[in-house]
Amino acid sequence: MSGVSYKNMTKAWGDVIGVNNLNLEVPDKEFLVLVGPSGCGKSTALRCLAGLEEITQGEIIIGDRVVNDVPPKDRDIAMVFQSYALYPHMTVYDNMAFGLKLRKTPKTEIDKRVQEAARLLGITPLLDRKPKQMSGGQRQRVALGRAIVRDPAVFLLDEPLSNLDAKLRVQTRAEISKLHQRLETTFIYVTHDQVEALTMADRIAVMKDGVLQQVDSPQNLYDHPDNVFVAGFIGSPSMNFFSGTITGTTDEMYVDSGSVRLRVSQSEVEQLGRDSIGKEVIFGVRPEDIHHPQYQPAGVTEQLLESTVDVTELMGNEIFVYLQTGEQNYIARVDPRADLRPGDKVQMAFNIEKIHIFDRTTEKSLATPSSN
Amino acid sequence: MQKATDMQTMDAKSSTVIEWFTSAIGRLIISLIVPGITFLVLWQGFIFLRESDAPKVVIAVVAIIWGVGGIAILYVVSNWLIEQMPAHWTRRLQPFVFIGPAMAILAWYLAIHTFRTLWISFYNRDGTELVWLQNYATIFTDRLMLETFRNNLLWILFGATFSVVFGLLIAVLADRSRFETFAKSLIFLPMAISMVGAGVIWNFIYEVKGVADPQIGLLNAIWVGLGGQPQAWTALLQPWNNLFLIVIVVWLQTGFAMVLFSAAIKGIPGEMIEAARVDGATEIQIFFRIMIPYIMGTIITVSTTVVIFTLKIFDVIMVMTGGQFGTHVIATQFYRQYFTNRNFGLGSAFAIILLLAVIPVMIYNLKQFSEREAF
């Protein structure tokens, strides 16, 4: 049982930088998800922690030990790979026992641990099978089992659900969360899927181009993204962005992109500061904060904006509406009762308490909605 | 009611039968005419080739067109013929159209001769007297003949094993080297040399001159340089002189083994090796417990191929020693008995023994192939 920390860690191959000066503390027993688009360095960060890649600069600490020069087998970690990486010539039992056998664990102890892990994962009937005789979901469990029997201080999971079909993925997601609660061990989980990140993580670390963008709890990350990238990456469909300037007066401030002009709420005016008029900004509104005028929740400070419906996508419990106003396109998630057809003109209600405002040059957050 | 429908289906049946019959006659006639024409065309081509006074170039061109085109036409026509038959017959017969010729050629050129050789091996030296297993008894009791088997065992034991082991080692080491392509090309190069060529090269290496003369053979030059007496490597120290011959084939075959192993090793998933590393395996443990089992299919294929090849070894021995100094193997013994001594019975018996020795390896190999395909 131990935490993990990256201190100024950089991994580069010649001129190509995989991870750039990463500083990240993962306390003991936390479920941390590293998320980002492919090529963002999240897997590299994990592989460096596993010892599969040598780091170029900085330190990696597991527990209270700097592990820069410690080989993977002595780092007290276990890893689950995207391809499961099971040994095809061994039975499930032997796959799980392999690591223990190498460590010269007594046979009875190995048997006990393998049986226990198999029971935990519900794969006891499969113990005599070879990987080729199993489905993807079963192999995935075996890969998890192989990690569990080792009883490591840290679990590393590299996109473990990517090769599963959608239904199984949702199911296994919940099981991994349950496993984490039961094992009470540090989990570091890499994924490109922000839904996995939001659903499983204690905290999420968002990366892009080798640089850590933001680390926070899923809710905070969703409500208060630090920059345009995080705002756009977390949430599906992603946030609508409009490029504009701040106009109006200190009493009545607007974000204005030409076609979209929204009043800035009082709390955000305070965050922006009085001297920000004329500032070039990007402002964003999440699709669920844009409502159909007839079906908006109570207590919303709304501003109507006439738009034309382009496309509608019925999701059952809601409708994704692709709309156009002036030159701007945006998406709204509206109540399924809203009867919208392509070409319809509709006054969409923007919740102006929920506007995210970013600096256009630095793309850093200037004001976020107050959370309540 | 039941009867009425029965009658109806009977009627329908008979009318379709008649239809099928009439069209079948039509088909039958066409089926006879088309192969007839084909046969005529091919026969005319044959007559032309046999009797024409045309320039040689023209005859050569016609022969190529006639040969290749003729085979194509035969396939097309016989396939067409089969397709004229009812569907279930087509399905049953069609495979034979395509494998039939190959089977026939194999039988004609291979199987018949195998049985003929077996038959001859039961006769005396000129085939005049049936001696049953006399030749085999000779082979398995005569000292010189037994030496032949001992040598073949040496060849398999050292030749095949070293080729496979070196091939595997080099493949693994080269895979981790920066000079992989260069190293592999170097090792693979001898594959391009014929057995006889290799024999000539190594003859120079093993060359021995008198004590007073300068040694032009590489091995003796080194040996004398280190203070030894010049040695006739391939003649002395029987039976170990065989090893000097075996080295040549190892040199030739290692490249073959290496290339196949190298391809297999590149097919090992990286994540699996990493998983083993995280699991706590050392590089040596990974090699023996993960990589070797993973490429076992290739190892078996390469080993059996090399074993069969080594069992049949002939050229190198013929060039280097001609079988003297106790270096005969089955193939050279067969050649000597059959063509030099003109003892057809004994020679054939050797050929049969060689065949029997290869068959189990072949069967094992084929079994492995079909098993591997299954997963």
Structure overview:
The complex is a heterodimer of chains A (372) and B (375). Chain A has 372 residues and is an alpha+beta fold. Helices cover 25% and strands 34% of the residues of chain A. Chain A contains nine helices and 21 strands. Chain A has helices at residues 42-50, 92-102, 107-121, 136-149, 166-183, 194-200, 218-223, 228-233, 266-272, and strands at residues 4-13, 16-26, 31-35, 57-62, 65-66, 77-80, 154-158, 186-191, 203-208, 211-216, 240-248, 253-256, 261-263, 280-285, 290-291, 302-314, 319-325, 328-334, 345-351, 355-359, 365-367. In chain A, strands 6-7-8-3-9-10 form a six-stranded mixed β-sheet, sandwiched between helices. In chain A, helix 2 packs across helix 3 and helix 2 packs parallel to helix 4. The longest helix of chain A is centred in the middle third of the chain and has 18 residues, at 166-183. Chain A is elongated. The model of chain A has no long low-confidence stretch (mean pLDDT 90). Chain B starts with a helix and ends with a helix. Chain B is extended, with a radius of gyration of 31 Å. Chain B is mostly helical and 375 residues long. Chain B folds into two domains: 2-120; 134-371, MetI-like fold. Chain B has helices at 2-51, 56-83, 87-120, 134-141, 143-175, 180-188, 195-206, 218-225, 241-266, 270-279, 283-294, 296-311, 315-320, 330-340, 344-374. In chain B, helix 3 (87-120) runs antiparallel to helix 15 and helix 5 packs antiparallel against helix 12 (296-311). Chain B has 15 helices and no strands.
